[in-house]
Amino acid sequence: SSSSSSSADAITADGRYQRPIYVAATKQHVGKTSVSLALVSGLKKRFGKVGFIKPVGQQHVTVKSKELGENIKVDKDVCLVREHFDLHHVDYNDMSPVIIPRGYTKKYIDGKITYESQMNDIDRAFRRVSSNSDVVLCEGTGHVAVGSIVNVNNAKVASAVGADMVLVANGGLGSAFDELELNRVLCQHYNVRIAGVVINKVRHDKYEQTKNYMTKALMQRWGVPLLGCVPDRPYLGCPALYDLEKVFNVDLMVGAKHRFRHYSVDDINLITTSLTRFLENLRSKPSRTLYICHITRDDIILGFMAEYQRRMKSNGAEPPLEAALIVCG
Q1: What is the pLDDT of residues 215-252, one digit of tens each?
Q2: Which of 66, 108, 109, 264 is most buried, judging by how many CB atoms fall within 10 Å of its CB?
Q3: How far is residue 209's CA from residue 202's CA, in Å, rounded to a whole number?
Q4: Sign of the CA dihedral with 267 first, then 273, 277, and 278 last
C-alpha cells in the first residue's frame, strides 16, 4: 500500500536506508522480549539513535508522557526497554499506539473501534519514532497471527511499516520448524521478508545438533539464516535477589553486589527449628540456598552472620557461603 512505502522511509544520518526490524515469535513466552533486548543492545553499538515501538500490546503499565504532560498506558515491555536503554529521544506517547485490554475485542466487533483508527495510530506513532531514530526495532505480541481478531496481526503491521521479520522459536528441530512454518506462511501472505530466525531455550546437550541442523534446514527450505541459537540455562527461570527486592518493595540490607544471584524455588527453606539444627542444615545443604525466618529469631540471624564470617576466615578451606536470608514479620 502507499502508506507502507511512505512510513518506512527511514534514512540514517549518513544517508543509508535502514529497514525496520520486527520481532515476533511462534507463541507466547518463548523469549521474544529477551531477544528484543539483545537486539536493541547490539543496535545501540552500531547506530546513534535506536527507536523502539510495540505497535500492539496487551499487558500495560501507567507511565508519564513528557510530551503530553499526563499519565498514559503503555505496554510493559515498552517501559522496560525505554528505561533500561535510556531511549529518551522518543516519547512514551509514540511507543505503544494500540493497547488491547479486556473488552477491547468486543468493542471492535461492535464497531466502536475501527480498523482505520488503529492503523492510523500505528502509522503516526511509527513515523514519529522513525523520524527521530537511525533504526527502529518493533516488538510484536505473541505469534505472527496474534491480533487477527481486531485485524492488526503482527504480519499485517510489519507489512504496513515496511519491516523485515525476525522470528523466535523454542529449541528442538521438528517441532520448532513446524511452528516456524505456520508463521512463515502468514508472513508470506502479507509479503513480509523474514530476515532470520533465533532459536531460544535449547537444551545444552542438544545445542550443537540443533544449531547445525536448523542452520541447514532454514537455508535449504527458506534461504533464511539462523541468527542465533541460545542455550537454556534453568537458573534464569529462578528468582534473583533483585526480583525479591521488587516483589517486596524493599532494599537488600547487605550484599547488594549479589542482587543478581539466582536461587532455586525448590531450595527455599522456612526456618522453624532450633539454632543448632539450622546451622547443621546450613552446612549440609547446597551453599546457594534461600532461607526465610521471622524477625523475632535473633538467634537465626546472628547464627547466619556468624557462619558467613567463619567461612570467610577459612581462607578457602571451605566454599564461600552463597546462601541468602529473608527476614519477615
Answers
A1: 999 999 999 999 999 998 877 778 899 999 988 899 99
A2: 108
A3: 10
A4: positive
